[in-house]
Write a structure and sequence with these properties.
single chain; alpha/beta; six-stranded antiparallel β-sheet; 20% strand; disordered C terminus
């Protein structure tokens, strides 16, 4: 039971921390989940990082895990050092983490270590050392801290590169939308979340005037006949007048999906969604495995923190144009985080793109809107003018 609870807790921590980092740790900063409870963060502009920035994350986790007056306490550890040391820290034994959380440091890790709670930040190594990069007031004002999105900010703009314009928006859903390789088949709340997304999209379609609106459904959940049966009455309830603007994404589609299983999913969705998209984390997705002319597009959802691997995945995916063109299927790329990734999609002639490098999260979907490519990401509220240009990395095991 303890193992199950630990897995559930790790999933919750990953969801809350990932949502916070996605809206505040914007490129050229990068982040990624590398182990249960552990994130790698990188800022190519900084020589040192301010541990106090992460107090808000600690407070968010505190509220989610224990409530406003809960008895538990969330404590984060931040190690700042080179890549080898950071990854070694990610694999640290629980006893080592416990010792550091208690404030003890035996020199096992080379780098600066800070202990972070919702109420204080202290330096564990060196003892009593600074918890930030000691910037001046002027530097702090110049370093952009992304404004927190308004309540209910759940939409990402979808951008068409050829016309340099937004054509609609997609709900920024669970980790599966962002290329998480783990399946969702054993998660009992997947259907509940997908239904909530369906209601949100339906409401948005009734209150906005233009643009496609996409909602996603889990492949590993939708493959079950019982889930499809539970979903159908909710699809029937979609307003007929809005359906022309709706799109459905089946997320976490494996490289070679079952022809029969996928056909059943498409048979369910086609009467309600004129545009259907398959989202996969595999750049070598077998486009020949899907029924002819059954989907409009296949989207590669990027994941991980290694930009070279991410760029290579884009190159491989967009390099396989012939089978997609033969099937008249668009190639899209999701979860773009850097200008380099966005530029590779432009040069590789991706059809649609979205992610933090394309637009901020927004409380309402963007409709049809022309925005020059050079001005992306759309919706940035503050320009980033920091002159600190050296790389720094930190790892956060949440305790």
């Amino acid at each position: 039971m303890a193992a199950v609870d630990s897995e559930v807790l790790a999933g919750l921590v990953a969801k809350v921390a990932g949502a916070y980092l996605e809206t505040t740790w914007l490129w050229p900063r990068r982040f990624g989940l590398v182990a249960p409870f552990s994130f790698v963060l990188a800022d190519p502009r900084a020589t040192r990082l301010d541990a106090r920035e992460l107090q808000i994350l600690a407070a968010n986790l505190q509220a989610k895990l224990f409530g406003a007056k809960g008895a538990g306490e969330v404590c984060l550890l931040m190690l700042e050092g080179d890549q080898t040391e950071v990854m070694r820290f990610a694999a640290a034994h629980a006893d080592e983490i416990e010792a550091l959380l208690s404030g003890a440091d035996d020199g096992s890790f080379a780098g600066r270590i800070c202990r972070i709670t919702p109420t204080e930040v202290t330096s564990v190594a060196p003892q009593g050392g600074p918890v930030d990069g000691a910037p001046s007031v002027e530097e702090l004002q110049a370093i952009p801290v992304a404004s927190p999105p308004p309540a209910g900010a759940d939409w990402r703009g979808i951008y068409r590169l050829a016309t340099e314009s937004f054509v609609g928006a997609t709900l920024n859903g669970p980790a599966g939308d962002r290329g998480d390789p783990r399946g969702e088949g054993d998660d009992p709340f997947v259907l509940e979340r997908d239904l909530a997304g369906l209601r949100t999209v339906s409401k948005a379609a009734s209150t906005t005037q233009s643009g496609l609106l996409f909602v996603s459904f889990s492949f590993s959940s939708l493959v079950r006949a019982s889930v499809r049966a539970a979903l159908k009455p909710n699809l029937d309830a979609l307003p007929a007048a809005c359906r022309a603007r709706l799109g459905a994404t089946i997320r976490q589609v494996p490289r070679e999906p079952s022809y029969g299983g996928l056909s059943e999913m498409l048979r369910l969705l086609h009467p309600y969604f004129p545009v259907i998209n398959l989202q996969t984390g595999d750049p070598d997705f077998r486009i020949d495995c899907i029924p002819a002319e059954s989907v409009r597009s296949v989207t590669l959802a990027l994941s991980g923190t290694d930009e070279r691997r991410r760029l290579e995945a884009i190159r491989r995916f967009l390099g396989r144009k012939a089978p997609y063109q033969a099937n008249r299927v668009w190639q899209n790329v999701a979860n773009l985080r850097s200008p380099a990734e966005l530029d590779m999609c432009r040069r590789g002639q991706a059809r649609l793109v979205f992610g933090p490098a394309v637009s901020d999260l927004a409380a309402a979907p963007v409709g049809d809107l022309a925005v020059p490519f050079a001005e992306l990401p759309y919706g940035v509220t503050r320009k980033r003018t920091s002159k600190r240009a050296e790389a720094a990395e930190q790892l956060l095991p949440a305790g």
